UniProtKB/TrEMBL annotation, chain A:
One Pfam family hit: ABC2_membrane
Organism: Actinacidiphila yanglinensis
GO CC terms: ATP-binding cassette (ABC) transporter complex
GO molecular-function terms, A-Z: ABC-type transporter activity
Membrane topology of the entry: Multi-pass membrane protein
Predominant subcellular localization, coarse grouping: membrane
PROSITE patterns assigned: ABC_TM2
Protein name as annotated: Transport permease protein
Signal peptide positions on this chain: none
Family, as annotated: Belongs to the ABC-2 integral membrane protein family.
Keyword tags: Antibiotic resistance, Cell membrane, Membrane, Transmembrane, Transmembrane helix, Transport
Localization per record: Cell membrane; Membrane
TrEMBL record, chain B:
EC number of the protein: 7.6.2.2
Residue ranges, compositional bias (Low complexity): 327-349
Family: Belongs to the ABC transporter superfamily. Drug exporter-1 (DrugE1) (TC 3.A.1.105) family.
Keyword Transport: yes
One BP term from GO: daunorubicin transport
Stated name of the protein: ABC-type xenobiotic transporter
Membrane topology term: Peripheral membrane protein
């Protein structure tokens, strides 16, 4: 485990037999070359950007016009925009990170992973490069989502720095989730299976949260569940940062979740990546 | 890279790959069951065996993709378990399925690998172009690899393995699934690499391929080495080629067999005819072939068709072990992602047709 962590941070370990270790600068260069690979893949296959480009548009329209009236009253859909867009921001990160798992699994069906694993590079760099590019995709998705929000009349109750903080927090949490999905992608046999399991986990997390509706309108047991649901925390934090309100608790909860998830799953994912034959 | 060459010399050894008692089990399947082998520096060792004999597992252990359960393996002096990072600096691997990124162009694939091998951007680009040229891929350089033909992909794969000037190159069934023309192209490239001083460990199911490329041969079956030595020695053990002659009139076959026996040509023995009137003669050299055909012509036998037949892997097994090659053990091929798409076409022998009109 310690070896995995050392490789992750790219710190040149001083452990015994460290000859041949990959230095930090070389590691960055490798990550750069691999991230470039992931971007070229997108260029070659522009359809892979459809989720990022269309999901925010469709979700915003659907939720505002389908549920907006029900939640905020007919004719008051725009009040719901302020509520749901910060929540959708949390959801966006989750949906995109899910794709990382299927992507990694797909990569493994091809021989190129074998080549990477027989090269003198830190094995984590393949995963980190993927995460970097996916975070870039999240930025685009969130940008479009906010654009849609503003077009539908969303107001910022705070200021731009707070809005940026909300974005960064969503990206941070999304990146930590990717490790879970990478781990899933490396553990399960097919991309379809990864998708299936991911959906099973995601649906209750997404809907049993404060993303779409206020938990106070839910039965007691579900309301309690939402309190511990990191997606609720993230939705609440984004809402507080964008609309105004008490920020500290939910933000710290999200940071704690993100760090916790990364610390536990990243070394497992790298170890799994190393072992996978 | 200069560093690694001196390293080889410093070790004083002429052995580039040294494997002792290597064991790898997948559940009840013994993929490797105590394998010993050596590859001398600058030579090609052919590892010949049927599907599931353990060839791919061997290559995966030697390239640090799989950890052995027991035994040791050293490549260019580096231990697979203790020094995997150093070892990865000196090897190149080309599998039976192309390990390149299909969505990237040929040039981008090679450039990426150059960068991953710590070449500066400019040098990586130059090296990519150099190898594209050498492997006749310059025209296709900008096309995504998924649009390449099977042979082009395999060449790109070889080029990718060559970027870092590896001291030791593993070729895992490099021509499985290729048509004969492309297979010849790949062979030519491998021969060039060897001429340039590479040490190669080549796995194959084809006797003909081993004959073409390898200096020494190791025959592996069910995870165990069952025979080994110089190609010529093994061939002698197996008995060289078989000459098949179809007389113009099939009724002439027995007379033909008798004539061959009676002529007492140097080293020619054991001719026989089958029920269909096909005469088979074991031969060890082209001279013997010429002598047999010439003698038959001289005695007025009409010949409709002749061909020579290299011993198939099955025949080699039969000759070496006295038993049939084991049935494929699918278990360990299943360990190998991507192999499914390129199922090998069995342990078939290779027919070398030499049609002669008489």
């Amino acid at each position: 485990m310690s070896a995995a962590t050392a490789t992750l941070t790219g710190a040149p370990a001083k452990a015994a037999g460290s000859e041949g270790r990959i230095g930090l600068r070389a590691n960055m260069r490798h990550i750069g070359a691999l991230a470039r690979r992931n971007m070229l893949q997108i260029k070659q296959d522009p359809e892979s950007m459809f989720d990022v480009l269309l999901m925010p548009v469709i979700f915003t329209l659907l939720f505002v016009y389908v549920f907006g009236g029900a939640v905020s009253g007919k004719g008051h859909q725009h009040d719901y925009v302020d509520y749901v867009v910060p929540g959708l921001m949390a959801m966006m990160g989750m949906n995109i990170s899910m794709a990382v798992g299927t992507g990694i699994n797909d990569d493994f069906q091809k021989g190129v992973m074998d080549r990477f694993r027989t090269m003198p590079i830190a094995r984590s760099s393949v995963l980190i490069a993927k995460i970097l590019v996916e975070v870039g995709r999240m930025v685009i998705a969130i940008g479009i989502l906010l654009g849609m929000g503003f077009a539908l009349g969303m107001n910022i109750g705070t200021d731009v720095p707070h809005l940026l903080m909300a974005i960064v927090l969503s990206l941070f949490f999304g990146a930590s989730l990717m490790w879970i999905f990478i781990l899933l992608g490396l553990t399960m046999k097919t991309a379809q299976a990864v998708q299936g399991v991911a959906m099973l986990v995601l649906m209750p997390l997404q809907f049993g949260s404060s993303i779409f509706a206020k938990p106070t309108t839910m039965p007691g047991w579900l309301e309690s569940f939402t309190k511990f649901n990191p997606l609720s925390n993230l939705a609440d934090a984004s809402r507080a940062l964008i609309n105004g309100g008490a920020v500290a608790h939910s933000v710290w909860m999200v940071v704690a979740w993100s760090v916790g998830i990364t610390v536990v799953t990243a070394p497992l994912a790298v170890a799994r990546f190393r072992k996978r034959t | 890279m200069v560093d690694m060459t001196t390293r080889l010399t410093e070790d004083g050894g002429t052995t580039a790959v040294e494997v002792r008692g290597l064991v790898k089990h997948y559940g009840p399947t013994k993929a490797l069951d105590g394998v010993d082998l050596d590859v001398r520096r600058g030579t090609v060792l052919g590892v010949l065996g049927p599907n599931g004999a353990g060839k791919t597992t061997l290559v995966r252990v030697l390239s640090t993709l799989v950890q052995p359960d027991a035994g040791t393996a050293r490549v260019a002096g580096f231990d697979v378990l203790k020094q995997p990072r150093q070892l990865r600096r000196v090897i190149g691997l080309t599998g039976q399925y192309a390990s390149v990124d299909e969505k990237l162009s040929g040039r981008e694939n090679l450039y990426m690998i150059g960068r991953l091998l710590d070449l500066p951007a400019k040098a990586a680009r130059a090296r990519a172009d150099e190898l594209l040229e050498r492997f006749s891929l310059t025209e296709a350089a900008k096309r995504p690899a998924m649009q390449y033909s099977g042979g082009m992909r395999r060449r790109l794969d070889l080029a990718a393995s060559m970027i870092g000037h590896p001291a030791v190159l593993y070729l895992d069934e490099p021509t499985t699934g290729l048509d004969p023309r492309t297979r010849n192209e790949v062979w030519e490239e491998v021969q060039r690499m060897v001429a340039d001083g590479a040490t190669v460990l080549l796995t194959t199911q084809y006797m003909e391929e081993a004959e073409q490329l390898a200096h020494e041969l190791t025959i592996i079956d069910r995870g165990r080495i069952i025979a080994g030595g110089k190609v010529a020695e093994l061939k002698a053990k197996v008995g060289g080629r078989t000459l098949l002659i179809r007389p113009s009139r099939s009724s002439a076959a027995p007379a033909m067999v008798a004539a061959i026996a009676e002529a007492g040509l140097d080293g020619v023995a054991g001719a026989r005819a089958d029920d269909s009137g096909l005469v088979s003669v074991p031969i060890l050299s082209d001279d013997q072939l010429t002598a047999v055909v010439g003698m038959l012509g001289g005695r007025g036998f009409g010949i409709a068709h002749i061909e020579t037949h290299l011993p198939s892997l099955d025949e080699v097994f039969l000759a070496v072990t006295g038993e049939k090659a084991s049935a494929p053990q699918d278990a360990q091929d299943a360990q190998d992602p991507g192999s499914s798409g390129h199922a090998a076409d069995g342990a078939a022998g290779t027919d070398q047709k030499v049609e002669v009109s008489v």
